[in-house]
Write a structure and sequence with these properties.
Its cofactor is [2Fe-2S] cluster. InterPro entries: 2Fe-2S_ferredoxin-like_sf (IPR036010), 2Fe-2S_ferredoxin-type (IPR001041), Beta-grasp_dom_sf (IPR012675). By secondary structure, the protein is mostly beta strands. The protein has one domain: Beta-grasp domain (Ubiquitin-like (UB roll)), CATH 3.10.20.30. It contains 2 helices and 9 strands. Bound molecules: FE2/S2 (inorganic) cluster.
């Protein structure tokens, strides 16, 4: 029997917790849990959602998310196209609780 893996998303500095299903981008998962992260294009190009990954690892839905290699190595991610590969902690000071 396949187990559906959910990952936990911790949003700092607020400390809000969200759950992400395997196919949910971090942005979608957070919104489903009532936490709105800054966003605009939702397709990995505008960089409005760009934030720091403090812990954990992500993969991307698209081949070339709009980040430089330097930015990636510094821990910047684009949550609108990022999938959690583990439990993750994000630094998003502008996150808003919507419900
Ligand atoms: S919302 Fe545009 S890159 Fe994420």
């Amino acid at each position: 029997m396949d187990e559906v893996k959910s990952r936990q998303i911790n949003v700092q500095p607020s400390g809000w917790q969200c759950m992400a299903g395997p196919d949910d981008s971090l942005l979608e998962a957070a919104l489903l849990s009532g936490v709105r992260l800054p966003n605009s294009c939702r397709n990995g190009t505008c960089r409005t959602c760009m934030c720091k990954l403090l812990q954990g690892s992500v993969s991307y839905r698209i081949e070339w998310p709009g980040l430089s290699a330097d930015e990636k190595s510094e821990g910047w991610i684009l949550p609108c196209v990022a999938l959690a590969e583990s439990d993750v902690t994000l630094d998003v000071p502008d996150a808003v609780k919507v419900f």
